Input
Amino acid sequence: MSNETEKKVLTTNDLLKQYSNSIKTGLTNGTNYVNAFNQLNNTTEKEDLLAAAVKLTNYKLNTDFVVFPHQFSDEDVQLVFLERLLSLSGLEGGLQISNPEHVQKLLCKFTSLGDNTFTFTKSGKNPTGFFFGPTNYNRPLFYLNLQTKELLFHGSSLIDYFVVDLEGTDVIDLKAALGVLLKLAEILKESFGFKIDFNVLDGINGEFYEFAAGDIPESIMDELFVKSADQQFILMADQNGGASLTLDNDTKLQVYNRGSSDRPKWGAAIHDTNQTENWLYLLLDYPFIQEWYLDNKKQLEILSNQFIFG
Output
């Protein structure tokens, strides 16, 4: 009985075998990582690109016996994926990694936005979720989760950055950068079936941009009437307190209550022939609407996913 409970003595040979096996395991883990990274960097198949990025996200490269001093971060993996996906889709050049010389936190630039840099930041709520935004401002422009196949735009941050922070930048250049983001979302949706929340970038006719306040004071609508008239546009009131505004190129803006008098749900909708206009573009195209929105932002802010961005 005592022989069965007696602790086994570890011989030198056993110790060396364990050490050797641990080294082999660590090196094999490193090789698997390199193979996935080579796939991320070299594959010409979009499905393989996504698979590699998902595998590399939260990959535990170091082991107790093998430690790699220079490593790309999970945020870097998302950025490499984004740039390569655009490249495989024939859209290289619109967005490029700007500092590929060293293994460090990677940044990217939009060709049309000069030296402004952008990067990913890991979500504090979900280890596979990441926020993309400018490095000089705390503006999560969108949320990306490759594992759950989600991309959600954050309307408030998009407006704060492209309308306020980049004030004075040519609208053509702003729209060029936003066009890259829109194309990225379309590729993710069409190629992989991602769930996309375009929010203020949704250009489908009749899309309802819900205001945060729910109810809108009459004074805010009066302000829009005045600003429209000053720019030679006529805001037509309807019987329910809402209004419609016909703009250039047969573009029509409607502001109305989609709820009830007891539970108001005010918001806006846009109609245009080519379905290229959206709420953010509208603010860029019409300074008087932009001014109206920014002056009343607390009430008129477009709602985004509060669980992700709250």
Summary: The chain has three domains: 2-53+62-67, 78-199, 209-309.
